[in-house]
Amino acid sequence: MFFATSPVAYSSALRRPAYAHAGRTVERFLDDVLTGSRPQYAQDDTTFTLTLDVPGIAKDQLSIAIEDAVVRISSKEGAPRRYRAAYELPQDIDAAQSEAKLENGVLTLKLTKKVPVNNASELTIQ
Predict the structure, then answer these.
(1) Beta bridge partners of 62
(2) What pLDDT, on the 0 to 100 scale, is given for residue 108?
(3) 48 and 111 in contact (C-beta within 8 Å)?
(4) Residue 49's CB: how many other CB atoms inside 10 A?
(5) Angle at 41 between CA 69 and CA 43, to 5 degrees
(6) Distance between CA atoms of 71 and 109, rounded to whole angstroms?
(7) What is the assigned CATH class of domain 36-113?
(8) pLDDT of residue 10
(9) For the chain, what are the domain ranges?
(10) Quick one: pLDDT at residue 25?
C-alpha cells in the first residue's frame, strides 16, 4: 500500500481556510432555502420590479415597508411560514406610486423611482 505524505505547511495552509467558513455557508444556504429563492430584479426608466417566491403566505399575512431606497418584506405574526428580507435599491422609492401584487405564491413589487428634486439655488456675484 502506498501512502503519500504532504508537507505540514501545505496541508494547514490549504485545508483550514476552505473549511473555516463552512458553518456560515451552510447557514446561508439553509436560510435561502427556508426563506425562499433570490428575487428576480428588473428596472426601466421609471420603475424597479422585484419578483419573489413566497409560497403559503396570504396577502394579509405580509408586511411591506419602504424607507428611502430600502424595501423590507416580512410575514406577520400567525403566518404559516416565516419570511423576512430587505433589499436596498440604487435609488429612492416613491411608496405612494408603488404597487404590490401577490398571485399564486409569487409577490411582484412594482416600485416607482422617486424623481430627484433639484434644491440648488444660484448666488449672485457682487
Answers:
(1) 75
(2) 96
(3) yes
(4) 14
(5) 70
(6) 10
(7) mainly beta
(8) 46
(9) 36-113
(10) 61
- Which residues have a Cβ under 8 Å from the Cβ of 114 and sit 6 or more positions away? 91, 92, 93, 94
Q: What is the pLDDT of residue 63?
A: 96
- What is the 3 state secondary structure string of the chain? CCCCCCCHHHHHHHHHHHHHCHHHHHHHHHHHHHHCCCCEEEECCCEEEEEEECCCCCHHHEEEEEECCEEEEEECCCCCCCCEEEEECCCCEEEEEEEEEEECCEEEEEEEECCCCCCCCCCCCC
- Integer Cα distance of 85 and 70 in angstroms: 10
Where the chain has pLDDT below 50, the residues are 1, 6, 8-19
Q: Residue 83: exposed, middle, or buried by beta-carbon count in 10 A (0-12, 13-18, 19+)?
A: buried
